[in-house]
Design brief:
This protein has 543 residues and is an all-alpha fold. It has helices at 2-6, 10-32, 39-80, 86-92, 101-112, 117-125, 140-164, 168-176, 181-192, 194-210, 213-218, 223-233, 237-262, 284-316, 322-356, 360-369, 377-401, 414-440, 443-450, 455-466, 468-484, 487-492, 500-509, 516-542; strands at residues 81-82, 280-281.
Amino acid sequence: MRKFFSKMNIWSFLAICIILFLIGPNLTIIEGLFMPENENWVHIKEYILADFIRASFILVFFTGILTIVLGTSLAWLIAQYDFPLRSFYKWSLILPLSLPPFIAAYTYHGILNYTGVVQTIFRNKLHVEVNTAYFDIMNIPGAIFIYTMFLFPYVYTIVRVFLSHQSATLIESARMLGKGPFKIFFQVVVPISRAAIIGGVSLVILEVLNDYGVVKYFGIQTFSTAIFQTWFSLGDIDSSLKLAASLMGFVIMILIIEKLLRGRKQFSYATTKIRPLKLVKLRGGKALLATIYCTIIFSLSFLIPVFQLIDWFILTFGQIPFQDFYIYVKNSIIVAAISATIIIIFALIIGNFNRLFQGRITKVLTRLSILGYSIPGAVIAVAVVTAFIQLDEWLTPLYLKLGLDSTLVLSVSIVMLIAAYIVRFFAIGFNSIEAGYEKIGTNFRDASRLLGAGITKTFFKVDVPMMKGAIISGFILVFIDIMKEIPLTLILRPFNFDTLATKAFQYASDEKIMEASQASLFIIVISAIAIFIFNKLLEKESS
């Protein structure tokens, strides 16, 4: 400890300040556990808390299982086999991430309801009367379908990248021992990919717990909807804090289970002669089946909802004033760009701090800084607004001296929303920057120091130019997630401040599904372009 503080400099001071900023708001959630119980909380705890837990568990469990099946099977198919359209599906299967689940939810509801295209074709074209209950998607199974179709790319991307770097010797040895394709997949591929699979599905689970749009639109009671209702309908922030703390406990339990599932098993190469997987050419029926499988999944998770949104966009074009739409676009891009830029700057500072001061204290502080991503947005919103209200109370004497009419300044400004984005999405930017630091190593930095350059000059002249790829990819990933974010924005946005995501959600909630298509398509186009660029960077880094 003494050695750590004796080496303190401007980099360590900045890094510690940033870490305190990142973890500070979440301490208010822990504080909420010790607040006295009121009537609302007693009622929630005795009658409906169990329902929140049950619904959340069902969504998490079945979505996790199905995304593992889809993501892993597609990753293995793309990594091991060559078949028609493989090169297209290799990157296009990531595109479902460009559709926020809540947009997919209202789009599929519009497709499948009584006036939707599916039932209309049955009635008017095929002259068949169908039971509308068969097409009801606004329930827990429907939510599981939406989450699975639009979150499986998390598993697919991580497992595919992992498998593409695996040695072909493992698979060839299994074949020489007489193992068929299915036995190789279940007895070799799945065990060696366990860490990657669990890493991907843990992201899926955290996204499900964070989501508010789908469950709100489908009328499913989960922790996220409960926090919103308790806060906005009952005006009870104390009970919201207790619900948030309960959800944090649920998340911590899941993260502990994830750690146990990963175990201590590690798979490493037994030889330095490593050959990447060689693609196996599929022919005839097998090639056709592989292409059909990828096409079905891609159609359900991207093509069908996008085509429906385009149709609605054409039908409602011009109904939303251009000036209003321009404001939504500007707001979305500004807050996403500012937040992503600050996150990357913070990540560069903490990442450099982590390299300069390698030790147990540094590792603990760094791990604490990325906890925000494992905490659902509704929880962070409660934490941030509570912290900012306390900050405004502390700054009240200053506000009075400045002659301000209100003592609530920061807690009703866009600063609070950006701060929440930084806390929530810092881990995404940091992971990219950390990987960049690991790739460039320390040799160039050490050489610069030996030549007389200081720490700061070395950082700007040597480290940053070498990490352009990591900086750009980190910025893109953060930008995409903020563009799609709903819970934080709905709770913390200033009065009369709308983004594309909140406006699309409001239109859908008001049953103006067609009007919601314009904002939705813009989100999808921006996200799809960003994903395409990110995939190109990923391939460049891998080559």
